[in-house]
Specification:
Layout lengths: L1 H10 L13 E3 L5 E3 H7 L7 E2 L6 E2 L6 E2 L1 H16 L20 E3 L4 E3 L4 H5 L10 E3 L3 H4 L10 E3 L4 E3 L1 H5 L9 E3 L4 H4 L6 H4 L4
Antiparallel strand pairs: 1-2, 1-5, 3-4, 6-7, 6-8, 9-10, 9-11
Length: 203
């Protein structure tokens, strides 16, 4: 019941443009809300008349994008609920004999959990051009973006933080920044099980 309530609540916090939970929501005069980055990108090439992507309300010039403080507070509380949610137990996708064992490693690129016995089995599987990226199963939450349902597989050179694809490519807070594959910085961002700062990926 609580999870159903949470899902219904989340539907009210989705940006109509990027279809993810709002990031720095702003409100137009027509009362519709969007991520600041999303509406900014939607209007980036417009020099005169602009329209609300939701109701098609026309504006002769771009209106001031007022931050919706109340909605921002609600989004922050919602995101904190996601962080407090206990992680579910993942099981190895390669175990075929008997019940699958709890995962010890997870490949972030393939999104494939595997037990210790099947790590090499997974490494022998076809992968993307960037290769596999295995991390400890206990550290997966530290690699997860708190705003988007995606792993942080990129490194923002401008702010020296790990970001997900939505943060840097789809109207996120790091759009336009120089980024590289997180594997290049992996020695710097390796998560320590005893370091709270590392768990937050703030390096």
């Amino acid at each position: 019941m609580a999870e159903n309530w949470k899902n219904c609540f989340e539907e009210e916090l989705i940006c109509p443009i990027c279809l993810h939970v709002f990031v720095e929501p702003v409100q137009l005069p027509c009362k519709h809300n969007f991520c600041r980055g999303c509406i900014g990108e939607a209007w980036a090439k417009e020099t005169g008349l602009v329209r609300c992507p939701e109701c098609n309300q026309a504006y002769n010039q771009k209106p001031n994008l007022e931050k919706n403080l109340k909605l921002t507070n609600i989004v922050e509380k919602f995101n904190s609920l996601n962080l407090e949610k206990p992680p579910s137990v993942l099981h190895c996708v390669f175990c075929r004999r008997g019940p699958p064992l709890p995962a010890q490693k997870i490949c972030l690129r393939c999104e494939a959990p595997c037990c210790q016995s099947h790590v090499q089995t997974h490494l022998q599987q076809p992968s993307t051009a960037r290769g596999h990226l295995l991390v400890e199963a206990d550290d997966v939450r530290a690699w997860s973006c708190p705003q988007h349902n995606a792993y942080r597989l990129y490194h923002c050179e401008a702010e020296q933080v790990a970001v997900c694809q939505f943060c840097c490519y789809y109207s996120g807070a790091h759009q336009g920044h120089s980024v590289c594959d997180v594997e290049i910085r992996r020695n710097e961002i390796r998560v320590s099980p005893v370091s709270a700062e590392a768990r937050e990926m703030s390096w």
